[in-house]
Amino acid sequence: MQSTISATKRPERSINNAFASQYAKSMFLSIVGLAILVFIGTRMFTHIDLNLYGYMVGTITFIGGFFYRFIAWGERPPTKIIIKKGLKLLFRKSTAKTAVNHLAIYDFIKKRGFYRWLQHVLIGWGCVLACLVTFPLVFSWMYFTMADNGYYTVVLMGMDLINIKADGIIAWFSYNALNISAIMVITGVSMALYRRMKNMQARAEQKFVYDFLPLYLLLFISVTGLLLTVQNVFLHGWMQPQMSLIHQFSVIVTLIYLPFGKLAHIPFRPMSVFARNYREHYGDEHMKECKVCGEKFVSVEQSNDVINVLDVNEMNFNMEKDGFNLAELCLPCRRKYRIARFSGSPTHQVKVKEANQNARG
Amino acid sequence: MVKKRLYLELENCIGCRSCLAACTQCGGHEQRNRNYVYDVNPLVNRQTMPLMCLHCVNPACARSCPAQAIQIHETGAVLSALVEKCIGCQNCTIACPYGIPKFDTEQNLMYKCDLCIDRTKDGIPPMCASVCPSNTLQWLTDEEIEAKQKQFNLDNGKWVTSMPYLEGETNVRVNLPGILQGVTKLF
Lengths: 361, 187
Ligand code: SF4
Ligand code: SF4
Hints:
The complex is a heterodimer of chains A (361) and B (187). Chain A is mainly alpha-helical. Chain A contains 14 helices and 7 strands. With 187 residues, chain B is of the alpha+beta class. Chain B has a single domain, classed as 2-Layer Sandwich (Alpha-Beta Plaits), CATH 3.30.70. In chain B, the strands form 3 sheets. Chain B has a 3-stranded mixed beta sheet with strand order 6-1-7. A two-stranded antiparallel sheet of chain B has the order 2-3. A two-stranded antiparallel ribbon of chain B has the order 4-5. The radius of gyration of chain B is 17 Å and the shape is globular. Chain B starts with a strand and ends in a 6-residue tail after the last helix. Chains A and B meet through helix 4, helix 12, helix 13 and helix 14 of A and helix 1, strand 2, helix 2 and helix 3 of B. The structure holds iron/sulfur cluster (2 copies). The site of one iron/sulfur cluster has 15 residues of chain B, from helix 3.
């Protein structure tokens, strides 16, 4: 905070003023970063694979779109709070465990249903695998050279990483990594599409551009990618350059779409780790007691943060007569208080636990 | 299609909890109800009242959500959290002035009344209003609500719909004509 305040006081000296906005600055920095990485990885641009040029353009467009979305989003008051406090709490002990849970094995999705979980693992990890192989190749951070002895050398960031036998098992997995990932994604996407076709529920929330387009895009990428292999292995490379272009096109379109549609949850999802840390940390620190029943129901920090966020949005739920803010009541008391306001009898003051509210008992 | 609203005549409630059961059966609700029925004065009498999301015009839940997971449908309905966006911070549960959003800790996901959006977007009443046997929950046009206002406005002029009795303008209309007018209804 301090630095931004002093920067506005002495505008002529601050680097921040070189850019029209925070957005332009972040954008500039990431492109410079990318360029430096490409420069190092390619041993000063000597190993650029021009076949993969389209991907590079796609990635840069993606970064632009991503920053545009991210900054518009990060400006919202509640988001700002979670980002700021989440970064501060990033080095909690539990962060690693929460991150693995939320971002790698998706335990919470398993609780939403095994089918959904399996579908998500297949699509998610299929894409991650594909990106891990593709992007280092695209930016020439990684490439292969072959000596006469039948061994490949994997070169990572300009350094020789390992020598592998051209017909060995590691080599087989390296050649086929993209095929494996394509099959994973195709299976996952088919499961997702099947669920949407069969399950007639929640149709209103399914918009073509939001729900189906990303699935079709992933399918398009995977199928064209697999076809490249088929042409290579069975058709002696027939029509391969054309297919390669189509495949590149599919990837570029997806990259451009990514920050705006459903797939945008991928870059934004790490926030759930922030949110968990925020709840745990401030919960351990000081819990808020309900102003009516005394039950500890949320951290003092979060209760105050929510009140402030609503304040910024010109909403104020201070009940002057009763001497509390609604965000200071636990949920059952808040609901009973509303009934009290409707009926005129002080429901929230009656010391009786709320009746069962779950229709399934 | 004429726009209809959910209209609550709270005092009609007989406490049958059909609305809770019906809510579990709506497509996309995954067998969990998102509404409530409360005893008004449990040690004294049997009066009950339902409580559900009032679908605020400026919803506190959505304003407080850092992930923009709570979307507002073009009909004005404030939807349940988008499963892929909700990051599980529970801000919405603290922000809502009526304590409506529910949170599933296992699934790390908030869920709330979506006014049965698959139904109401096509003008079909939400599940709760479809089953309510006592006309507590009704699905009415603005004209019909106005007619009710005239009907109940006879003596002391008291009429509760949203403002100024609620915290903000809502898409759902609330009323309890009998209690405010001191009239006992025969149910
Ligand atoms: S009543 Fe609560 S949950 Fe419903 S729209 Fe308003 S703030 Fe959101
Ligand atoms: S719990 Fe989910 S829906 Fe509620 S405010 Fe947090 S992210 Fe938004």
